[in-house]
Amino acid sequence: MRIDVEHVAKLARLGLTDEEKKLFGPQLSAILGYAENLNQLSTGNVLPTSHAIPIKNVLREDKVIPCANVDDIMANAPDEADHMFRVPRIVE
Amino acid sequence: MINKSAHELHSLLSSKRVSSLELTEAVFARIDQVEDKVKAYITLTKEEALRQARAADARLKAGNNITPLTGLPVAVKDNMCTQGVLTTCGSKILNNYLPPYDATIVAGLKSAGAVIIGKANMDEFAMGSSTENSALYPTRNPWDLTTVPGGSSGGSAAAVAADEAVLALGSDTGGSIRQPAAFCGVVGMKPTYGRVSRFGLVAFASSLDQIGPLTKDVTDAALILGQIAGADPKDATSADRPVPDFMAHLETGLKGKRIGVIRELDLNQCNKEVAQCFEANLALLREEGAEIVELSIANIPHAIATYYVIAPCEASSNLGRYDGIRYGLRAENTHNLQEVYEESREQGFGPEVKLRILLGTFALSAGYYDAYYLKAQQVQNRIRAQYQAAFAQVDAIASPVSPTTAFKLGEKMDDPLQMYLSDAFTIPANLAGIPGISVPAGFGANNLPIGLQLLGKHFDEARLLGIARGFERALNLSLPNLAI
């Protein structure tokens, strides 16, 4: 199977070097080719697993919990102003 | 003293024959001696560790609120958030990340009075089987520095093997605790999915990830599991189940235990020495009164393909959060938001992580979802049901941990699929959500350790640990000298 690496990278918002584009094509084909073994199995009505253990909704009271470490959170921001994350202009 | 097990040291600490400060200083002296060669850690937190050791000594002196972890030096894998302490996940994209909070497991260690030595090296985002995918540097196997320690919890395993920590925490998505434990000659346990809170564990594949201990022996693993298990309101997938006393059945022996061997597991893919070791291990289990039962997990041959669809799909979604906006690396000289995303991710992620993001993105993309992701989830359900049926017949299932002993650095780096295939024995436990443990089982050529894997049924860790302990006691393996 041939994979359009550049298209998939675009979907993933992932930049790739030219070298990576060349490298990943054959690697992806090999791995996906291997994964295609699964299609030999007839799985008919088998339900897909989302978790191997029964998982149920966990509900709790909708209660405001104070967040005391806003400064610590914002300290990790690459670009911050007045407790806000700054990004390049998104509207012209 | 630093080569002693946690339970031995616990009794030395409780009886005041050793102080936590002495022990912690001895561990750091050992680190000064060997860390240049092993590279088990990304970050060492010596000052804070010495402070924690003094606090533990005060607690031990006062004689109240002492836990099995009080005063013990622990290594924490670098994908568990530690408040104010660098948490890189082995990635450049998090090379400056200071978590504003502690993972539940880290908070638990602290309140138990453990001493956190540092953050252990790992494959980037826990993706890998050799720790060579760390963006910082590879860790080396203390038994032979030219070989890998396994991965992705390679730093945790190497730290325990090299006495750079008394015990360690790792995480296991497809074998990342058990395989490095086997390669490094220590015990490694992946508990049942949900047994230990994942809050603050950097997510790789959320439905498969589980935190567990790497220790010097099975007793230590039982001891630590008792400390870290339990429901957590901050992790909705953590199991709301009582935590049994994992020490209670530890010495019950092997007599009458039924141990399954999977018919479909292809032992021909194992090195001769691993296959021979496994045969000898089964013979020993028999001698000790266990019954070996052949059983079928028909879809075992499809486990790797299933895993390498599901795990990258989840990863591609989980790793979407690394976009250069709120934390982590942001590319410079970008002109718009799209470029911020693409270039930050291009610069921040290493090749294996990129490959898996692409794999997952492709498998989830329009037109391919049913053929890959849905199909894999169906096969996963079958595998899970087959294990469930098998555990109606047996108490545990045995296999090798890895088809080989530790391989050379660089040996498998050019061929990801070959690296993936080496996870054949460990992956099924994650797909089935069941607990598994790797126990030192012998040594191959060049003194490289071999592990035995034992799997148990959901939430049956107590029985599994008892069988593992029975095996460990019967084998009574004497360890050769480390290469360092």
Automatic annotation (TrEMBL), chain A:
Q: What is its EC number?
A: 6.3.5.-
Query: What domain of life does the UniProt record list for this protein's source?
Result: Bacteria
Keywords assigned: ATP-binding, Ligase, Nucleotide-binding, Protein biosynthesis, Transferase
| Reactions the enzyme catalyzes | L-aspartyl-tRNA(Asn) + L-glutamine + ATP + H2O = L-asparaginyl-tRNA(Asn) + L-glutamate + ADP + phosphate + 2 H(+); L-glutamyl-tRNA(Gln) + L-glutamine + ATP + H2O = L-glutaminyl-tRNA(Gln) + L-glutamate + ADP + phosphate + H(+)
- What biological-process terms (Gene Ontology) are attached? glutaminyl-tRNAGln biosynthesis via transamidation; regulation of translational fidelity; translation
A molecular function GO annotation: ATP binding
Q: Which family does it belong to?
A: Belongs to the GatC family.
Quaternary structure annotation from Swiss-Prot or TrEMBL: Heterotrimer of A, B and C subunits.
Q: What is this protein called?
A: Aspartyl/glutamyl-tRNA(Asn/Gln) amidotransferase subunit C
Q: Which organism is it from?
A: candidate division WOR-1 bacterium RIFOXYC12_FULL_54_18
Specify the taxonomic lineage. Answer: Bacteria, Bacillati, Saganbacteria
Originating gene: gatC
